[in-house]
Amino acid sequence: MSEVLVLVEQHEGALAKVTGELLAAATRLGEPAAVVVGKPGTAEALAGELGAWGAAKVYAAESDEATGFLVTPAVAGLAAAAAAAGDPAAILLAATVEGREVAGRLAVRLNSGLLADVVDVADQDGTVVATHSVFGGSYTVRATVATGVPILTVRPGAIEGAGTAASPTVTPLEVTVDPAISAVIVADHPEPAGDRPELSAASVVVSGGRGVGSAESFKVVEELADAFGGAVGASRAAVDSGYYPPQFQVGQTGTTVSPQVYVALGISGAIQHRAGMQTSKTIVAVNKDADAPIFEIADFGVVGDLFAVAPQLAAAVRERKG
What we know:
This protein is α/β, with parallel strands linked by helices. It has 8 helices and 18 strands. Strands 10-9-8-11-7-1-4-5-12 form a 9-stranded mixed sheet, with helices on both faces. A 5-stranded parallel sheet has the order 15-14-16-17-18. Helix 2 links the parallel strand 4 (31-38) and strand 5. Helix 5 (219-228) packs parallel to helix 8 (306-321). The radius of gyration is 21 Å and the shape is elongated. The mean pLDDT is 92.
């Protein structure tokens, strides 16, 4: 069985949820092999958890300089892992800002085809087939690559299931990063982290739109999200109106989410927004306008005042949770 390489998403030794999703996707295509890019010792520290998530092998693309450059160490690490694996069935990365750039550079380096923003994967008679949700979720298409090793960026939250637990071996790789073509990291300014889950990885997302009316009124969105233990999102219209910070924007030009439950409060459902949440497993919409486009894709819709509905829903959720 051919190996399927997965670029591990981690920060200071903490694995991102999407890494487990990538390993689950890899099990459908071959033998999952995690590629860890970081300082020496990182792979050994993560091997046990990666094995629990389904990694049968762990490649350690480590060096003291690995965290000192943008993107290029991950490209070099994956290229080295592909050479070590011989003929991998596919290479999977998260469809994040960094993952997309790594995938594009790697595709050029390996002369391979790239399939972006994938929401499902399958093996059909030895061929990797990727599923995409396109044109704001209006169409579902399937695609394959014509050249080289298939390189896929997978949308966080899109893949369900889990890999089979394993006891992986750690294989060190010789990785060389060329400083002449690499951007040096001179400072790190992370976004302030609150108590809520990360937007792209949350299992429940509650988003507010222009119908919320003001920044002060966004409290109703936050309270419902907190009742669920979920993340807060906002439509582009809400962000442009100054109701909520831009980093919480959900949509084609913001963050793409695919949670188990997506609650849209006062969001009309323009195609730009729908493109970023269309693949959510269950969509709940609350809007005064019965003709709002969001109801076309909602699994459950309420035509009513969000300021009356959302607090009742929050109270019901808290009561149910005890």
